[in-house]
Structure prediction request, 214 residues.
Amino acid sequence: MSEKTPVENANRNLVWIDCEMTGLDPDVDTLVEVAVLVTDSELNILGDGVDVVIKPSDAAVTQMNDFVTQMHTSTGLINEWEQGMNLQDASAVVMDYITTHCPTPRTALLAGNTVGQDKLFLTKEMPAVTDHLHYRIVDVSSIKELAKRWFVDAYENAPEKSGNHRALGDIVDSINELRYYRDTIMVPSPGPTAAQAQKIAGELELYQTADYAR
Prediction:
């Protein structure tokens, strides 16, 4: 196998993002914190990352429910966002970091826990970010759910999380969680040989579309 070029390696990077919001409805709620860490394909963190606090509108703050208000109060975030950035400046900081490590548009994948929810808000409020990333995502929560079903001991002994609903801490937890599942439930690199993979594929009894919904 030929050695990959720096550009090819960058195209395999993962862009880990976690967001804190005023709620879960992108139609009425807004981003208040965004943290980003880029890793290479081996989950090594590249650079220092970014963590930006964003000043929300008065309307967004007013409509927060008690649970969200208490959460952001206990983490201290509610005391920080009054001096937070506006969305435009925050987006520029995020994009500068991402493009430094992932210069080619639509190649690097978005990664995180239940990251589809974060993507909804990013698409609405930081569209430059989601436009730059590939449409595929790496959702660590999906791997956790599979471990819960197939590898119960590994699932029950996963490292405790300590992010405590702050964006940077949560995204560090996500990276550590995937590192743990890679080392416990996945076949060690480099994995099966081509011949072994072909043998497994040949022995697998495949479901057939014609057998269902007839």
